[in-house]
């Protein structure tokens, strides 16, 4: 649809500095000849030197106070409307230019208009220089230009730009211009509407807007603006049968705009007026335009007959949409009434082209003939709100789509798009949350395109890297998947691209992150139109996958699918909403790397969730053995951030960026090439000895104080406790507590050492104190206190702790808390609560430890659980097995099979993951069973089910 923004489609006077010199709410722009061709007009379309109309009331130009020294000062901006039989607008502006940088833009003006129904009379172009005046009305160079780029985009509007070049404009000059425009697009049936911008980007000494209209016409007006400013109150009078409404203010401060404000925020006030009494009136006007004359034969009926053979209403809807999208090319001829009145379906079919309104009317006609309820819909692309603040008017709409009701559910279909195939429910939606006006007589208000109720990840990247040796070449497999709207957009791009272009795009995709990356073989493109999913997979060789940064090897990753989805403002003190560029967006990124085998880390899966009313983000990190993985899932929830919420949003964004990181780092000091040949128990033993050595050097160096020194003692104490040097470990832990007696993390450190030494009640006390000091927010302190209470024989209290830990923990941490909770219920002989069993079964086939939780809950056999670990390798596999064997032992305890329990506890101890709590607990269980007289020579037989 060709946008008619106001009284006369965007008649603009464009001057310097992007000031709003027009009177219709459209942003002024500096004139340029780029993409323009010169045209000739009829002699009456644009005239020079005409006298000012008698109905205009002239104002003197205010003097600029000596105290004002700004680059540009608008001395006068005067807009006067005569809304009679022929609507007219008189506009006058005087602007003083005090900066040489502004001269180029100020000396070149543009007026855009539609000669078919608009007439422009340029009264005055005058320069004031001191006491002198220079008339440039007849001597300025005026050219009439049409934008050829519009034709390239498939648009011909007939609009012309009068480009005016002002001679001899100097610093300190005041440039005055005045013109009157008359005429209106007949498609509006003579009804008046429009908007005059009030606030200007530059300081204004006097601003006035006057509405003159016959007293027998009902024209409403409203000052629209979202900034908290004093009300703008007009004066009203009646003379000679005309009502005069005058808004006048002097002076008016400048209002420089903030970047990235959403279109539904009216940062600059405007005076809106309209003769449409309600949105019902606007909808009725639009409905009249979209009355279709349905062809009774010919191709139209042939298409209907073919589509009717399809088996379902959704299939028929998609077939009609595909036909209009693919068989009718987009081209807009928006001359006169055709700017808003669509062409009839038979003519569109005959000429095989049309714009949004033409294609929408054709689609509505097809759907109705197929028995599918459908209605045309008007919208402004990208506007998610704001119409509720305005008066009813056609000026806010620039696009037409179709609402089809299928199976009782509304679907909003855009016939100008391409690449939509397959199932109706999986079709992408480009206008989620946008305000719309259904062009139907029953419409009485604007509404919105509903958000998709599904939870489809629309943009997903999975990257898997392998590095056999540091300093050498690595391998990287990348798979990127687009679903819904993204799949449709890329499908069109790939259809138009050559094979060589596609290959080059995939080949160069990682060059910035990994210079010298080489594509191996051909990229694999999979296009599933039924599911509306498209993927590209590729394999790369990376010359320097890991780079040396000081004392570490670093492998970087980058969330290419989430770039600029969320942004920060240039100013922390924002006064306008901040647009979220990625709304709507739901994406996922995963990077996984297998490091050389001498790497043996033991970071349990952990999850960081950042959630507010603007976005939800979850960052999951995992690093076990030589396998590291980072996963990020992000979903935007609102199109913009309110100013009052911006500080919190910005803080959340910083937290998200911190959680995402951007690289995995492996400290060279923790690598041991000889240890790579040993088993995991020996490697972990050597790593712990190295930790003790390094922390001892730091402690003895005498440079650490306070919490830093306490943390060093804690780190060394943990390492000593893992090596069963509990007396030394307790000394370190006690020293740490003396240095930082109120630090929750230091108390949890000593609580852990107490636990490893078998002093369970002392451990419970320290965990309780840590929780009292705020150390339980993430649930971990509750879980560890629960474990200590289990071995202290306080089972019911342990259950309460595990439940609290599960409530507070993130999704990954909750799994381990739930495992202990299920196991403790089993030890007490109590049934597991139904909600806990449900959680255990929800992701039983997911990554470890999900299978372990399902096994404990009786939803999976131990054999199947162990089989789920077979895909893991190296230390990662051994670490998971150490946990798995322990939890099989707990399950056998619950079943009363102490022999099997003892055997699996021993298997956990034999693997020797000394830093795992399961390793310590297995020792406690073996000691307890031995005291109970269990058979110590028992061998694990078939796994108990």
TrEMBL record:
<keyword id="KW-0802">TPR repeat</keyword>
<keyword id="KW-0677">Repeat</keyword>
<dbReference type="InterPro" id="IPR011990">
    <property type="entry name" value="TPR-like_helical_dom_sf"/>
</dbReference>
<dbReference type="Pfam" id="PF13181">
    <property type="entry name" value="TPR_8"/>
</dbReference>
<feature type="repeat" description="TPR">
    <location>
        <begin position="710"/>
        <end position="743"/>
    </location>
</feature>
<keyword id="KW-0732">Signal</keyword>
<feature type="domain" description="Transglutaminase-like">
    <location>
        <begin position="348"/>
        <end position="417"/>
    </location>
</feature>
<keyword id="KW-0449">Lipoprotein</keyword>
<dbReference type="InterPro" id="IPR019734">
    <property type="entry name" value="TPR_rpt"/>
</dbReference>
<dbReference type="InterPro" id="IPR002931">
    <property type="entry name" value="Transglutaminase-like"/>
</dbReference>
<protein>
    <submittedName>
        <fullName>Lipoprotein NlpI, contains TPR repeats</fullName>
    </submittedName>
</protein>
<dbReference type="Pfam" id="PF01841">
    <property type="entry name" value="Transglut_core"/>
</dbReference>
<dbReference type="InterPro" id="IPR024618">
    <property type="entry name" value="DUF3857"/>
</dbReference>
<dbReference type="InterPro" id="IPR050498">
    <property type="entry name" value="Ycf3"/>
</dbReference>
<dbReference type="Pfam" id="PF12969">
    <property type="entry name" value="DUF3857"/>
</dbReference>
<dbReference type="InterPro" id="IPR038765">
    <property type="entry name" value="Papain-like_cys_pep_sf"/>
</dbReference>
<feature type="signal peptide">
    <location>
        <begin position="1"/>
        <end position="28"/>
    </location>
</feature>
